[in-house]
Amino acid sequence: MYPKQFELLIESFRKLSGVGAKTAERYAFEVLNWEDETWKQFVDAIQNTKTKLHQCERCGNISEETLCEICKDNTRDQHVICVVQEVRDIAAIEKINEYQGQYHVLNGVINTSKGILPDDLNIASLVERVKQQEVKEVIIAMNPTIEGETTALYLGKLLSEYPLKVTRLAHGLPIGSHIDYADELTLLKALENRTEL
Fold it and tell me: What are the Toprim domain coordinates in residue numbering (predicted)?
């Protein structure tokens, strides 16, 4: 239906998560109409992402240098580490402008059905950081899924032998929601994590 090169462009967009055939086709037509300068910026951004970005040696965040901006920031609390599943979780936490500690990215969660075991995650370097940085608290910030729960429990047990506090994000009802729309697990967690008024 379309020229081969245009079909290749559509297929390239389909490789993006959540992009179906129609959306990929719409993206392809959109970029087809770009000015030359916009094309160049887009191509350069993709090429530079592959060549100039890598993982921070300390925490696993994306960075253009050996250490990411957060790890280089000496004003942040070096004794608190928030463990997250993915790099994008850091951005979500940073948006609230409250947390001033360090991060550690696992690059996934334990998922035995997919063959992802603790050794496949960025856990060994977390233990090394705990040993070397005199960490006082590790905050486990996993998604509230079965895999996230499994990973949180594993990390809690693993870190229990060190003299530090291991905490996790509270679970419960989101602001603005209705109790009758919540699933059983969310209601259970809300009851377990209730606080005094």
Answer: 79-174
Q: CB-hemisphere CA count at 13 Å for 173? A: 15
The answer to whether the predicted template modeling score (pTM) of the entire model surpasses 0.85 is: no
Would you state the structure tokens that stand for residue 108, as one six-digit string? 């996934």
CATH class of 74-168: alpha beta
DSSP string covering the chain: ---HHHHHHHHHHHTSTT--HHHHHHHHHHHHT--HHHHHHHHHHHHHHHHH-EE-TTT--EESSSS-HHHH-TTSEEEEEEEESSHHHHHHHHTTS---EEEEE-SS--BGGGTB-GGGSTTHHHHHHHHHTT--EEEEE--SSHHHHHHHHHHHHHHTTSSSEEEE----PPTT--GGGS-HHHHHHHHHT----
pLDDT in tens, 88-104: 999 999 998 899 999 99
Pinpoint the residues of the chain covered by CATH 1.10.8.420.
4-52
pLDDT for the residue 95 = 92
Q: At what angle do helices 124-132 and 146-159 cross, to 10 degrees?
A: 40
Residue ranges of the chain assigned to CATH 3.40.1360.10 = 74-168
Distance CA 179, CA 6 (A): 49
